[in-house]
Amino acid sequence: MTKRTLVIGAAYVDIVVGLNRLPQSGEDVTGNLEATQVGGSAFNVQRALAYQGAAADLLAPVGLGTYASIVEQTLADRKIPLLVRDDRADNGWDVSLVESDGERTFLTVNGIEQLWSERWFQSVDLKTYDYFYISGYELEELGAAKTILDALRRRKVGAKVLFDASPRSQYLQPAVLEALFVPGTIVHCNATEAGSLVAGETSYQVAAQHIHRLTGEPVVVTLGADGAYVVDQGQCTRVTGEVARVINTIGAGDSHCGGLLAALATGQPLLTAVAEANHLAAKVVGQVAGALEHNR
């Protein structure tokens, strides 16, 4: 029987612009508008889970305003239940600058997804879920982090949390990391993020091993085309990646998280789950959109 996942986080509007290279300060460059689409880590993770046929709900707020309307319509089009509405602010949005090699840079304007409220968790029964996804993006502000982590303490015994560090992991407070690095938390990050999660450590291998000793749970470090480095049960393993034609890297880490959770939810062994996650990440970098969708 497939286990259920609750994806906690944000749905943003991505304005995707392609350009040859990022401008220097004061420089004027031109770009091409590639897409205006809903993204955000949580949205992309939920879509990867759905792509794999896994049972996954999305706890992402929809606010009031221009961008909120785009998010709400997208959720309706994809038949994703709207679990949280809060009219205190519009949804956030970002300009996603994608260079010719596929690397992306975000300029983000935050919105309702930074105003976490205990009330938002009243729309779901946390004890019915076996896995939870949370991102470092939502844990950067201490009030939001406390609200989310306090809610997760009410999950049922044995339920696991997948913590996706995010590119802003260096801004997470030590107290937040201390609360995360406990039994029950699977840590997912890339090599750069791994070094920022452990003070004074730049080696992703040593950082991952240190985190594993604290949590006793798997630590997965993504390495792009080189696959992933996995620490579990005291063992370190490299899981081979897939060669992919890179259009842009938006959603690669998110899809990796979704693929990992989908496979774990169906009882797949960890290394098999990581291989499936590598496959989804390779698939999403070959498209403009950061979310995987079946043809509808």
Account of the 3D structure:
It is a single chain. With 296 residues, this protein is an alpha/beta fold. Helix content is 31%, strand content 23%. It contains 9 helices and 14 strands. It has an 8-stranded mixed β-sheet with strand order 4-1-9-10-11-12-13-14, with helices on both faces. Strands 3-2-7-8 form a 4-stranded mixed β-sheet. Strands 5-6 form a two-stranded parallel sheet.
Q: Could you write a compact summary of the structure shown?
A:
The chain has 296 residues and is an alpha/beta fold. It has helices at residues 41-51, 66-77, 136-139, 142-152, 174-180, 191-197, 204-215, 252-265, 270-284, and strands at residues 5-8, 12-18, 32-39, 56-59, 61-62, 84-85, 93-98, 104-109, 131-135, 160-164, 185-190, 219-222, 228-232, 235-239. Helices cover 31% and strands 23% of the residues.
